[in-house]
Design goal:
It comes from Chryseobacterium taihuense. By secondary structure, the chain is mainly beta. It contains three helices and 18 strands. It folds into two domains: about 120 residues, no CATH class; about 100 residues, no CATH class. The longest helix is centred in the first third of the chain and has 10 residues.
Length: about 260
Amino acid sequence: MKLVKKIKILVIVLFSATAFCQSRQTTKKIAKNASGQNNTAALQTKNIGLPVVNESIPLLIPKKLNGKSGFVNQKGKFVIAPEYDLAMFFGEDCNLLNSPNEKIKHFGSELYATVEKNGVAFRISKAGKRVYQYKSDDLGRCKSDLKKALFYAYILNGKYGIIEDAKFKNPADHSQFKIYPKYQYLYVLEGDDIANPMIIATHNDKFGVIDVDNKIVIPFEYSDIKRNYSWKLSKMFEVTKDDKNYYFIDSYNRSY
C-alpha cells in the first residue's frame, strides 16, 4: 500500500532571536510579534526620501555585513549602519500596541523596527534612532488573526505535492492533486492571499519558489530559503547560496 501522509504547515517565528536581557520568554514574544503587518513601500504613508525600485517591498530592508545587521534602501545602500545582532523589518509590534503602558503604545506602530544588540532589544526609527528599550512589564497580549490555509503539502511515496484540503478525498485520483507529488520538499508560506500562496520547493537538491499552479517564481538556484514570515510581511524571501550568508530577494529574484 502506498504511504500517504498529509502535512499540516505550522506557523513559525519570524526570526530566531538571541537572548533578551530580561528573559528568554520575553525575547520569543518580541521575535514572534514585532512585525505583525505588511509594510511595503506602496503602503507606507511617508516616503522619507528613499528610492523605490519595487513598490511591493519595504523601503528599508535588513541586511548583514560582517556578522552585524543594519538596513539598506532598495538600491542596496546602507541607511542604518550594521551594528545589531538582530534586525527585523519595520512593522507593527502587537505586544507594544496592546501595552498596559499608554505612553509607549505608539512605539508599536509600523514606523519603527525591532533590533537587538548585546542581548538588549530596542525599537528604532527610520532615521536609526533608538526610541524605546523593551521591558517585560510593557508587553501586552497579542490577538491571533491566523487564517486557515486552503492548500497543504502532501507526501506520497516520499515525494511532496500540494492539495486543496476541502476538495481532496482520494489520493489514488491523480486529478485531485493541485500539484502531483514530485518534489523533494514543499512548504506553503503564510501570506495575505491564501488562494495564491507562495511555496518553497526543493528540486535536484536546490531551493526555489513555485505557486499553486506549479509555475516557477524563483528559480532553483539556492542552497536554502528560510521558512519564516518574510513573504507575509515584506513580499520577500530570505535566501542563501552558500548556507552561511543569507540575504533578501524579491519575487523578481532581485537581491538587496
